[in-house]
Amino acid sequence: MTPTAFALALRIARRELRGGVSGFRILIACLALGVAAIAAVGSVRSAIEAGLAREGAAMLGGDAEISLTYRFATLQERGWMADHATTTSEVAEFRSMVQPQGGTDRALTQVKAVDGAYPLVGKVTLSPAMPLAQALKGADGLPGAIMAPALIDRLALKPGDAVTLGGVPFRLMAALTYEPDANASGFSLGPRTLVARSALEGTALLAPGTLFDSRYRMALPPGSDLEALKQAAQKAFPDSGLRWRDARDGAPGISNFVERLSAFLILVGLSGLAVGGVGVSSAVRGYLAVKIPVIATLRTLGASRAVIFLSYLIQIGVLSAFGILLGLCLGAALPLLAAPVLTALLPIPADFTIYPGALAQAALYGALTALLFTLWPLSRAAEIRAAALFRDAGTSARTLPPWPMLLITLALLALLVGSAALFSGAAELTLWTAAANLAALVVLALAALGIRALARRLRPLVRGRPPLRWAVAAISAPRNEALPVVLSLGLGLTVLASVGQIDGNMRAAISRDLPERAPSDYVVDIQKDQIDGFLARAQGDPGVSRVDSAPMLRGVITRINGRPAQEVAPDSWVLRGDRGVSYADTPPTGTRVTGGTWWPKGYDGPPQISFSAKEGAEMGLKLGDTMTVNILGRDITGTLTSFRDVDFRNAGMGFILLMDAHALSGAPHSWIASVYATPEAEAPLLRDLGRDFPNITAISVRDAIDRVSALLRTIAAATSYGAAATLLTGFLVLIGAALSGEAARMHEAAVLKTLGASRAMILRSLALRAALLGAAAGAVALLAGIAGGWAVCHFVFDTGYEVIWPNALLVVGGGLAVNLLAGLALAWRPLSARPARVLRSRD
Q: Which of 145, 332, 445, 624 gives the lowest tally of CB atoms within 10 Å of its CB?
């Protein structure tokens, strides 16, 4: 294009824009809402990430941490830490049962045994206020214990009371009101108890074979290279099973959760932008339909297609930029305004300010969406000929744009999806979401065309019912709002329907199906000399229907076929940290071997391994592979000789990795048991077991289910808000579609009035039209939402699926109600317009 042509297009665009934004308010609103949602989510995510980075050392409890499973550090490992750190603090964490001395109530607690250097960073706050060292020292000859207020309230304790922790006596000294490194431990099943590490020497709580983690927090010299130290530690102890964390990611569990949830919410926001894109396209088409005489006049005066295309692209670009800017302002302001509330709700630090990176991503998504949904109608507008001045040639432009524009559209779509995959950090989820949105748009577009065709066939069947006949005739007309209504409302309802089905099925799996099959309690830290007595008491209780037990060790898979395991299967969750490991001489009850053979009974040869078939397939394992497992600092290499089914869905006992008994029976270890007891038998059984075996720890499966349910409720609420924003965008698109067709409805109403129709009949016709389209959009969204919910539950969560009909029917009813209300709200002007004025303006 020549500079002269560009200047001409710019002049035309400037003059057109002098007329204001009439016709583009919906375009601006759709873009602003979609961009604001994504910008707000991105800003909150950035605020949390900044807070975690700033408080990384305090949340971790030091500049860096080395953690070990089932054991404490060796002399060599301690020496390495002493050489590189200015100060080191040793912390042991485990679960145990706490009980008031002389009482019968018991509660699960997450114990942290600390040394005199704890905490390296931050300060522990107690009530009543006292130095931490004084509280841990205790009183009256008993070591001190500090407990979370929830635990104190649950057991009706007060400072000064004596308690037993796994059978070891302590004196409750204070309530723990602030723990600087509370989030470093990740998910826990019980409230916190702090005790001195020295108070546990010689007790069964940290005996060989019990389940505990040792953590070594290090204060490093200023300017230390954390990545270089991490590599040095892993090189010095390559197969020790140590795990490294540092202040760059002080609470990885929380940061991973925030990252995944925000990525999902951004993808929901992109679904909202897709709905907004429909509104953008509809607004552009409506605007250009009004401008057909202007475009035809310009063509008559010699304007080229390129000039026409560019002039209107500039106009829409300016208005889209205004909508994006408005969305960025809203997206940046909302987190700042909500900062006091969010700070109080979040259990982690967050720095709320303006984050240019998050806003830039939202602006990029908005610009690509606007351009993607604008090019198609613009390219068709450029095809308008001068003959449109003399006859209704505005619709003569071909349905599809020229092939270069198709290629550009596909390139923009690929750029939008690629950007979302890159910035979200969840490429696979992004691709599936994009594919689902694209498929939903195609299905909804086909449904709209089908509704139009069906309406044509119904026209002869509704004779004698004027309002219904007029509604069906309007839907079957070539220029009607069926396509934008079904696309916008249908896609918004599809997102909402999918979220409703997923949420309903996950709640059902957690709160209804799982407890029927799950054990009532898990019992851990059963010593070898206690297992027979434990089984005798549990199995002899008439209220206990089943008891499963197995040896329990924990190990880290370090090598596969002699190569580092992370290199062989870098994406496998099995290799992230340590895993439960057990041994068996014969296949446990219910075991189904799917490949290979089980070792013979009494086998005493080289170690053999039986591995979970599903996880083995995901890792690319095959029979005959060798695997090295680090257990208690010792490497054990075995040959994979069988695969078997392992089902974790019923919360039963299952081990990814089993070895032959000869390989592991000599290692220090404890036993784990799952108990299936009735609610009436559960409490007396646990009291008796706690009295006879005070060191064991009982973990209530129902309590764990309640905590997971609470987490799911939080996720469901967040996603529901995102889906509601998508639905709101769809509602705006509905209004835009109704406004763009207002002139046609005014002419239709004027003709009907002239022919003797009453306002009531015309209103019923408009209401029936809106209701039919809303019900159609809701029905399509219902089917798409059910299919989407099934896909997520089946392929992502690997759970059963059933249609949650209350949620599903609410979607259909919501689609009908929303479109009906929008149609009635916008029927006033067509009904109140005078027929003579309307018909005279069309002459």
A: 624
pLDDT above 70 covers a percentage of the chain that reads 83
Specify whether the CB–CB gap between 171 and 160 falls below 8 A. yes
DSSP code string of 368-422: HHHHHHHHHHHHHHTT--GGGGTS--TT-S-SSPPHHHHHHHHHHHHHHHHHHHH
**What pLDDT does residue 510 have?**
58
Say whether both 712 and 831 belong to one domain: yes
Q: How many domains does the chain have?
A: 4
pTM of the predicted model over 0.70: no
Q: Give the pLDDT confidence of 226-284 residue by residue, as tens digits.
A: 889 999 998 898 877 788 888 776 555 566 666 666 666 666 666 767 777 777 777 77
Lowest mean pLDDT among 229-238, 714-723, 780-789, 799-808: 714-723
pLDDT at 262: 64
Q: 399 with 450, same domain?
A: no
Q: What is the pLDDT of residue 395?
A: 46
- State mean pLDDT over 321-340: 91
Q: Which stretches does DSSP call E strand in 101-199?
A: 107-114, 125-127, 144-147, 162-165, 168-178, 192-196
β partners of residue 171 = 144, 162
DSSP secondary structure letters along 349-383: ----S--HHHHHHHHHHHHHHHHHHHHHHHHHHTT
Query: Residue 133: its pLDDT value, please?
Result: 93
Any domain includes 59? no
* Contact (CB, 8 A) for 660 and 533: no
Residues 392 and 292 in one domain: yes
**Same domain, yes or no: 86 and 26:** no
For residue 467 the two structure tokens come to 């309002």
- Which of 677, 694, 711 is where one domain is finished? 694
Contacts of 29 (CB under 8 A, 6+ apart): 279, 323, 732
Listed in sequence order, the residues at least 6 apart from 783 whose beta carbon sits closer than 8 Å to its beta carbon are none
Q: Are residues 92 and 202 in the same domain?
A: yes
Task: Classify residue 233: in a domain, yes or no.
Answer: no
Tell me which of 243-257, 286-300, 431-445 is least confident: 243-257
Instruction: Tell me if the bond preceding 119 is cis, omega within 30° of 0.
Output: yes
Q: How far is CA 36 from CA 366, 538, 715, in A?
A: 10, 58, 20
How many angstroms separate the CA atoms of 49 and 67, rounded?
Answer: 23
**For the residues of 471-531, what is the DSSP string, one character each?**
HHHHHHSSS-THHHHHHHHHHHHHHHHHHHHHHHHHHHIIIIIHHHHS-SEEEEEE-TTTH
Render the burial of 785-814: b for 16+ CB within 10 Å, e for the rest.
Answer: bbbbbbebbeeeeebebebbeebbebbbeb
Residue 331's domain comprises: 1-54+248-425
pLDDT at 394: 46
661 part of a folded domain: yes
**Within this chain, do residues 218 and 79 fall inside the same structural domain, yes or no?**
yes
pLDDT greater than 80 at residue 424: no
The closest alpha carbon to 115, from 136, 101, 141, 129, belongs to: 136
- For residue 683, give Cα distances in angstroms to 267, 541, 680, 703: 46, 12, 7, 14
Q: Same structural domain for residues 365 and 492?
A: no
Q: Is residue 230 part of a domain?
A: no
What DSSP state is assigned to residue 142? Answer: B
Q: Which residues contact 330 (CB under 8 A, 6 or more apart)?
A: 32, 36, 39, 40
Q: Is the pLDDT of residue 328 over 90?
A: yes
Q: Is 546 helix (H, G, I), strand (E, B) or coil?
A: strand
CA distance 565 to 581: 17
Question: Mean per-residue pLDDT for 537-566?
Answer: 89
Residue 801 has pLDDT above 90, yes or no: no
